[in-house]
Amino acid sequence: MLFKQQALLRQKLFVLGSLAIGSLLYLVARVGSLDRLQPICPIDGRFRSHGQDEIPLRALQFKRGLLHEFRKGNASKEQIRLHNLVQQLPKAIIIGVRKGGTRALLEMLNLHPAVVKASQEIHFFDNDENYAKGIEWYRKKMPFSYPHQITIEKSPAYFITEEVPERIYKMNSSIKLLIIVREPTTRAISDYTQVLEGKERKNKTYYKFEKLAIDPNTCEVNTKYKAVRTSIYTKHLERWLKYFPIEQFHIVDGDRLITEPLPELQLVEKFLNLPPRISQYNLYFNATRGFYCLRFNIVFNKCLAGSKGRIHPEVDSSVITKLRKFFHPFNQKFYQITGRTFNWP
Ligand code: A3P
């Protein structure tokens, strides 16, 4: 009798357990598939009457789905047409600064349902050959998006290239411009590290950072060295200000984006007039990588590629001091122009 009761209980527990596991699996699959499957953006134009700056929250929920399928080659041209997907010129561009954290910024902004990123650096405005291909060529390089989403591209070379401000101005004089900066000496060393890695890969010999950054004849900072010049942020910004008012720029603190990304992203959301949708849930610290990684939903997350977050070579402390002293007055001017103060040494 007792044996029979125990068997019955085991059977009941088995059924209940199976039901619980089944529901859990269903939930996981459902939430995961929200990203890739339907529902698809409403196609009846209900959201079309909103102003440019206003993004209807309901439309935001449908960000991925079809876009994702299209990128994977699974959505037909007919679906694209039906769902009103378009390739839009960017409403905001991350113009630099190289090694400031431009990739991290773009990927993190892409967590926002109203943002669609151009994955590749397009180099339209800084490359004469590309620029000669015309604006339609540029637009066709953009990802598909719903009309109420905004496209963002990043090409860090834009910040330092002479012709770019005027060219962007001609495309859209009210475009929003994002600049992500890091402490200038650290940025210069990061820049050097990237070039060094490239040289090493090609089995080429390369100079030490100290030798490049300091002119051996004068013992002064070598302003001909590109990694140094790029870090003189104010010089470049001044060229941009001939075309765009300062209100059209937003400066992102690249050092803070590494350690505390959410508040920096929230400031960008505000600048772009986006409803606040990126949350702490979307960002988790990965101890192995030593950086924050991205969580889109419970099944899809990713860290940036290994080329982001390289170990920098040791640099002579006197060279670091010299560089910091050199950048100091330029930094002060940068704070003054942008209205954002960084505690760079
Ligand atoms: P280091 O390689 O010097 O550490 P960019 O994308 O403009 O080339 O910038 C690269 C820098 O982004 C890296 O420089 C890294 O420090 C920084 N970064 C910021 N957030 C990051 C993240 N979540 N994962 C990896 N790198 C990140």
UniProtKB/TrEMBL annotation:
<feature type="binding site">
    <location>
        <begin position="99"/>
        <end position="103"/>
    </location>
    <ligand>
        <name>3'-phosphoadenylyl sulfate</name>
    </ligand>
</feature>
<feature type="binding site">
    <location>
        <position position="292"/>
    </location>
    <ligand>
        <name>3'-phosphoadenylyl sulfate</name>
    </ligand>
</feature>
<keyword id="KW-1015">Disulfide bond</keyword>
<keyword id="KW-0325">Glycoprotein</keyword>
<keyword id="KW-0472">Membrane</keyword>
<feature type="disulfide bond">
    <location>
        <begin position="293"/>
        <end position="303"/>
    </location>
</feature>
<feature type="active site" description="For sulfotransferase activity">
    <location>
        <position position="99"/>
    </location>
</feature>
<dbReference type="GO" id="GO:0008467">
    <property type="term" value="F:[heparan sulfate]-glucosamine 3-sulfotransferase activity"/>
</dbReference>
<keyword id="KW-0808">Transferase</keyword>
<comment type="similarity">
    <text>Belongs to the sulfotransferase 1 family.</text>
</comment>
<keyword id="KW-0333">Golgi apparatus</keyword>
<dbReference type="GO" id="GO:0000139">
    <property type="term" value="C:Golgi membrane"/>
</dbReference>
<keyword id="KW-1133">Transmembrane helix</keyword>
<dbReference type="Pfam" id="PF00685">
    <property type="entry name" value="Sulfotransfer_1"/>
</dbReference>
<dbReference type="InterPro" id="IPR037359">
    <property type="entry name" value="NST/OST"/>
</dbReference>
<keyword id="KW-0812">Transmembrane</keyword>
<feature type="binding site">
    <location>
        <begin position="308"/>
        <end position="312"/>
    </location>
    <ligand>
        <name>3'-phosphoadenylyl sulfate</name>
    </ligand>
</feature>
<protein>
    <recommendedName>
        <fullName>Sulfotransferase</fullName>
        <ecNumber>2.8.2.-</ecNumber>
    </recommendedName>
</protein>
<dbReference type="InterPro" id="IPR000863">
    <property type="entry name" value="Sulfotransferase_dom"/>
</dbReference>
<feature type="domain" description="Sulfotransferase">
    <location>
        <begin position="90"/>
        <end position="334"/>
    </location>
</feature>
<dbReference type="InterPro" id="IPR027417">
    <property type="entry name" value="P-loop_NTPase"/>
</dbReference>
<feature type="binding site">
    <location>
        <position position="182"/>
    </location>
    <ligand>
        <name>3'-phosphoadenylyl sulfate</name>
    </ligand>
</feature>
<feature type="transmembrane region" description="Helical">
    <location>
        <begin position="12"/>
        <end position="29"/>
    </location>
</feature>
<keyword id="KW-0735">Signal-anchor</keyword>
<feature type="binding site">
    <location>
        <position position="190"/>
    </location>
    <ligand>
        <name>3'-phosphoadenylyl sulfate</name>
    </ligand>
</feature>
